[in-house]
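ESCALATION

Customer reports they have been waiting on this structure for their group meeting. Please prioritize. Original submission:
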Amino acid sequence: MKRLAEPLLRGDSFTAKSQPRRRRDPAQPNLPFDPIPDRVEPCLAPLKTAPPTGPDWAYEIKWDGYRLAIHIEPSGVRIITRGGHDWIHRFPTIAAAAKELGVATAILDGEAVVLNAQGRSDFGALQRSLGGRGGKRASTESVLSAFDLLYFDGHDLTKTELSARRHLLTDLLDGAVGAIQLSEEVQGDGAELLENARSLGLEGIIAKRRDSPYRSGRTGDWLKIKCVQSESFMVVGYEQSATARGGIGSLLLAARRGHDWIYVGAVGTGFKEKDAAYLTKTLDMLKTKTPVVPLKGKNYVFAQPTLIAEIEFRGWTDDGNLRHASYKGLREVQDNAAVYELD
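Update from on-call: job pushed to the front of the queue and completed.
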């Protein structure tokens, strides 16, 4: 089992450590417990162009995978996606690792990732391990990068400050190297960490307020700063090609503006042959004569807005198209991917 990537700064850097947790004293009088919630809506990180500064912020690597909440309960383990679906059957190794943590009740917040040979998360590899979009395969290569603890040993921690939640999480996962590992806090200046992340080929960093409770939604308590932009866009068709593998020259992409679809350009790189064949077959089944964006072209095949693609890009052109776009994979409906919203 690969270890999660090492901290971005070495030498003077260090990872936050705490004393091993003490097991509950059986002779201790029973304390009142908080009921374990059926589900906690995730705390989300708005995208920022530069990291915040100051001692109030903690930093972590930004992982590129599927957001999951691991519910450990007396009745068993549940693995809840951002869309509220139980995917325990898709991540059996993570479920098995959760059972081995030796805790009666807990909710861990984290990201399921597949690591490449360099220890970096690879979204495409994760998708392939699950059998692609709509696939039914179980991913045995995936690792949960756990970065928060929302409930533990009968106590709701969502109103507790992040530094205390991280302290407990570090104790719980002390030395773990299997399918659940700690997303370690990295020490240093945010701008320097971002530059190091860029040089290592990572997606970016996450900044979190140390004293913040766990609040669902995009509150600004957590921020994401990316080295390379990556967002979800709707596939609204494709351009046919007689020479490209799978018959797809490029995918036609759209973003949201209110209730409307706005064309943001095409992507013609990043496909593997298997990806192109699946996309052609699926988009042909979704074919429509009425495009959802005002676009004309004799080689264009328009499709109903159903498939959501994760696209990496370097910025925007003056006419509102994606610059240097590259296809990374399709998002699952159960992943509750949010299509990019234009201002």
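Sent to customer with the following note: The longest strand covers residues 229-240.
Escalation resolved.
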